[in-house]
Write a structure and sequence with these properties.
It comes from Actinoallomurus oryzae. The chain is α/β, with parallel strands linked by helices and 325 residues long. The protein has twelve helices and 13 strands. The longest helix has 16 residues. The termini are far apart. The structure holds adenosine-5'-triphosphate.
Length: 325
């Protein structure tokens, strides 16, 4: 399938080219299988949401992509090479993993300048990325005085320093105020529109629904879903109708076999397999009095929780065993 270009930018867009590729990736920590035979690809021009409950293996996967942890087996590559084989890593992939990992006595400018010098990046890029993240006014301040939101912006400036075609963000919205959240969402969208591949982890579906074009869901280190966000939303929305009234039992007996039904309180039914118009018409034809007829969409958060329930229960069991020791 040929994908339409989403915007002009310095990177190839819509070619379907894979920028980050994970193949059979596995990581064991002693008895813990943190990442289990994971395979997925991150494409340019898209924000790919990397979603999973706490402990699912997201950070471990990102750390292996970035060469910070060695895989037990399998491979993770950026632009076709493992991170360790990148001639200029900051020019291949920019990452925001831990916004706190900055010397507090250094100014923002000198922090970025040291990174640039170590990676063969020009001094001019430092000023450019400080402006991009809105820190140019505080460039000469020590980072120890920065708020979490400012440290997060500095971490993103560092990620952008090498103007890389791939960006990796681990839970970048954690702890941010609403303004910071809106800003990072906008930045991720902008980076993708420029043609970069953006991989961003989160444990909240609601965040991803607003930001990501593509979704990779993991649980217990394993792949659960790898799908376009639109396909995911379409597949999981608009299938329930709540019906209320004094004669819902009569309506229940009139329903065709395609309808599935469960009670909701004494006078309500939740019907799947028929839309509100079909149900309303059926009730009218049968002379059934209705007091409510409401299409309901399960929240994406609910769908995500259903998808990953087994993984979460597994984690809870482990937790219980550990605490009962
Ligand atoms: N250095 C380590 N040593 C031992 N076990 C580890 C180590 N790092 C991670 N783990 C375990 O690997 C599993 C996956 O952890 P990971 O941090 O990758 O998950 P996550 O999806 O990023 O979770 P969260 O959303 O809580 O950050 C967990 O069971 C965790 O306890």
């Amino acid at each position: 399938m040929v994908r339409a270009p989403v915007a002009r930018g310095p990177y190839p867009i819509g070619s379907g080219e894979i920028v980050i590729e994970v193949c059979g990736l596995t990581k064991r920590y002693g008895d813990v299988l943190a990442v289990d035979d994971l395979t997925f690809a991150v494409r340019p021009g898209e924000v790919t949401g990397f979603l999973g409950p706490n402990g699912a293996g997201k950070s471990t996967t990102l750390r292996m992509i970035l060469g910070l942890d060695a895989a037990s087996s399998g491979t993770a590559t950026v632009g076709g090479r493992p991170y360790a084989a990148q001639p200029a890593p900051l020019k291949a992939v920019g990452a925001l993993l831990d916004a706190g990992a900055v010397l507090p006595s250094r100014t923002a400018y000198h922090h970025l300048l040291a990174l640039a010098a170590g990676n063969g990046i020009s001094r001019g890029r430092v000023a450019a990325v400080l402006a991009e993240v809105g820190l140019d006014g505080v460039a000469r301040r020590r980072t120890g005085t920065f708020s979490l939101g400012m440290r997060q912006r500095l971490g993103i400036a560092a990620a952008l320093l090498g103007d890389p075609p791939a960006l990796v963000f681990d839970e970048p919205l954690n702890g941010l105020d609403p303004e910071g959240i809106v800003w990072i969402r906008g930045l991720m969208r902008r980076m993708a529109a420029e043609g970069r591949a953006v991989l961003v982890s989160s444990h909240l579906m609601s965040e991803m629904a607003l930001t990501a074009d593509h979704l990779i869901v993991i649980g217990r280190g394993r792949l659960i879903a790898d799908t376009a966000m639109k396909v995911f939303i379409d597949a999981h929305s608009g299938h329930e109708v709540l019906v209320r009234g004094p004669q819902v039992e009569t309506l229940r007996r009139m329903l065709p076999p395609v309808a599935e039904v469960r009670p909701d309180g004494a006078d309500g039914l939740v019907v799947t397999g028929m839309d509100a118009a079909e149900l309303g018409a059926l009730a009218a034809a049968g002379g059934v009095e209705l007091h409510e007829l409401t299409p309901r969409e399960p929240s994406l958060e609910q769908v995500f929780m259903d998808l990953t329930r087994d993984a979460v229960e597994y984690q809870a069991e482990i937790g219980e065993k550990e605490t009962s020791r």
